[in-house]
Amino acid sequence: MHTSSLQQNILAELDHELATTRKLLERVPYEQADFTPHPKSMKLWQLATHVVNLLAFNQLFVQHASRDFLDPNGPKPGPTPTSSEELLQRFDQYGASLRQALQDSDDEKLTDSFRLHRGEQTLMERPKGAAIRIMGLNHSIHHRGQLSVYLRLLDIPLPGMYGPSADDPSWGM
Length: 173
Description:
This is DinB-like domain-containing protein. The protein is mostly helical. 53% of the residues lie in helices and 9% in strands.
């Protein structure tokens, strides 16, 4: 009987989402970095960079027991990428690093607790596997969806993500 582990499931999901996210990021135009659909929305480049930086954030869930947002020595994202090439290079680097951290982990470690907090205030405390899914992958997918709306508003054809997109000629829309 074949059993699939928590680690294997997360890795398979990560691989799918990384490939899908990269296809979308490849279409983000740096020349329209300041585009925003609404005054309360992030700018296009800020959102694309956030999607990439979330990969490093996800790695915290795998390798540490907690993260305090008030810790001045806590990990910080690198400088904002200044080109599409730099954005994709960071995405590939962070994705590979997250994948390696997951490969170096195991089911038992992924059931250990992770606490996200701001000083004494707990924002989230869950098993690492759940933290990766909820604050990691789901959070990334949420922002990727926002990014796809930005691209649609800029009339940039979208890649298929969970099937063909309306921009795929074989879709028939």
